[in-house]
Amino acid sequence: MRLVRDDPQALLEVAKEGLDGADILVLLAGFSVSARDLTAQVIGDLGVPGVLVHGVSLHPGKPTILAKVGEKPVFGLPGNPVSAMIVFDLFVRPTIAWLSGCAEPPPPPTTRARLSRDVPSVAGREDYVPVRLEQKEDGLWAEPVHGKSNLIYTLVRADGMLQVPLDRGGLYAGDEIDVRLY
Percentage of the chain with pLDDT > 70? Predict the structure, then answer.
């Protein structure tokens, strides 16, 4: 792992070095969905086909970059800790499993719980919300841990994540949900 300043040439040199010595390249932070995005430019300069997707309907994690240089997968993960963890789990982990010869990666551990509060969402976007689990007399409950994706305490205080599906405008208190455990 190397830290690189926001300089296109320095980032390109480190990315080339990383790509030459690995089967996969993961770049973390230093970009967004905008014209100032150095990472997308650098990935494009690494080779073809280059950036395949820049931005996904995911919250947190929208500025994700999915790319390929030659036969090697390249990922650009957002710098916020919650975003990076979610994007890694959804895109990078399955790719590593596949490259390791695992055709069907094992699903993440989950548990069922009832949601303690409403969780609003925007239809057309898949949301991931950290939750804390609490065993009560009437069963297991999931309490949303709200906070911005740059605040690592949301992960520290949570036991897992709930997913609000792409086609839902939110989840309601009392809904039975799956929680992806850490």
Answer: 93
C-alpha Rg value of the chain to the nearest Å: 18
Q: Is there a single domain that holds both residue 19 and residue 93?
A: yes
Residue 93 lies in a domain: yes
Q: Are residues 28 and 87 in the same domain?
A: yes
Q: Give the span between the Cα atoms of 171 and 89, in whole angstroms.
A: 22
Residues 120 and 90 in one domain: no
Using the predicted structure, report yes or no on whether residue 151 has a pLDDT greater than 80: no
Rounded to whole angstroms, the Cα distance separating 179 from 137 reads 19
Q: pTM for the complete prediction?
A: 0.85
- Residues 80 and 119 both lie in one domain: no
Residue in 132, 46, 57 with CA at minimum distance from that of residue 87: 57
Please list the alpha-helical segments (H only) found in the chain: 8-20, 38-46, 81-87, 93-99, 153-156
Domain that holds residue 176: 110-181
163-172: average pLDDT: 93
